[in-house]
Write a structure and sequence with these properties.
With about 350 residues, the protein is an alpha/beta fold. The chain is built from eleven helices and twelve strands. The longest helix has 25 residues.
């Protein structure tokens, strides 16, 4: 924690606490709730021994996406719903104008500054380990939540106690659906179908699309294998049960690994496996990996390393040698195809 700086500055210091009180970090027994439900309402300083934790904690991990972060935070301030939520922005040593944007335009938000880029998982874990709200919402800075999106996810979780987590319908600017918002798991068989092109050739075949789930209707609420860490709501009790995000993943697959561990765990109240849902009634605009495109080659390589790590962690030990070699080759092919597509798309 010595590489983390915390800042929480009141929007209206003359009416609450002097700015100098929060030079480096807030008092341990104080926090600020953003005035998201009423724009005219001043930030309220709450003391832990008087006020319970909010229902929801939103975590936004940022790395050099300041302009997009502004849109993300503005959308959170327009969120509907009769409940409190905290917002934490964890910055991974950005060199852009992120700090200026947050401190000048959203000064009541909890801003935590890492002195180096520790990755998505480690940055989220800093908040997951400290806060005690009933739900957490992991949210990418290149997303814009519709006014009722968070409300619909909270309502879904409240009415579905068997749900460990829920994800919204992620939509790109052109209206197409981000397929990663609901997926199966990249098992060795699914990786094979993906790498040899069968999933693309037969997008409605349930067997060949076990990973992409392209055979499912995009507007139907369904139980799914994994949802995207770009926007994922999860119960605190589930985090306590299965553990936080695996920090061996630097970029990519940490959300898949988390969902895999969740689905392998039992709900202690029912004795049944926890369920993960895709809820298209909640809609979120995903501007699409803005921080990744700035370092395309490195990001592609990190994704390949994460894919291999997931396979080696969960499937490789149970495979015979020939299948291990085949799967490793398929992972390499999939990574190569995706890298070429990424490079070509950004040359247009």
């Amino acid at each position: 924690m010595e590489n983390l700086e915390r800042r929480t500055i009141p929007k209206s210091p003359e009416k609450s606490i002097p700015r100098e009180v929060f030079k480096d970090s807030p008092p341990e027994n104080h926090r600020l709730i953003p005035p998201h439900n009423n724009p005219e309402k001043r930030p309220i300083l709450k003391q832990e021994f008087q006020i319970p934790e909010p229902l929801l904690t939103v975590i936004v991990v940022n790395y050099n996406t300041g302009e997009f972060l502004r849109g993300c935070l503005k959308s959170l301030y327009q969120a509907e719903g009769n409940f409190d939520f905290d917002i934490y922005v964890v910055d991974n040593a950005s060199t852009d104008n992120t700090l200026d944007i947050v401190e000048s335009e959203f000064p009541d938000i909890n801003l935590w500054l890492n002195k180096e880029n520790v990755g998505f998982a480690s940055a989220n874990n800093l908040v997951l380990r400290e806060c005690q709200s009933k739900y957490f919402l992991l949210l990418n800075p290149d997303t814009v939540t519709s006014p009722d999106a968070i409300k619909k996810m909270v309502e879904f979780m409240e009415s579905h106690p068997e749900a460990a987590a829920v994800g919204p319908k992620l939509v790109y600017e052109d209206g197409t659906v981000d397929w990663r918002c609901r997926r199966g798991f990249p098992t060795p068989q699914a990786i094979f179908y993906q790498s040899v092109g069968l999933a693309s050739l037969f997008p409605k075949n349930e067997k060949f699309t076990a990973y992409t789930l392209s055979h499912l209707a995009p507007d139907k609420t369904t139980e799914t294998g994994t949802i995207s860490g770009s926007c994922m709501m999860i119960r605190k009790e589930v985090v306590d049960q299965v553990g936080d995000l695996d920090e061996d993943y630097f970029l990519g697959f940490e959300d898949i690994d988390w969902c895999y561990r969740v689905k392998k765990s039992l709900n202690p109240k029912t004795g049944e496996p926890w369920k993960i849902y895709f809820n298209p009634e909640a809609k979120v605009l995903h501007l699409g990996g803005r921080s990744k495109t700035q370092r395309k080659i490195r990001s592609s390589l990190e994704l390949y390393k994460s894919m291999r790590l997931f396979y080696q962690k969960h499937f490789r030990p149970n495979q015979p040698k020939i299948q291990q070699l085949t799967t490793e080759a398929c992972i390499g092919i999939s990574w190569g195809i995706q890298t070429v597509k990424t490079l070509l798309s950004h040359q247009r």
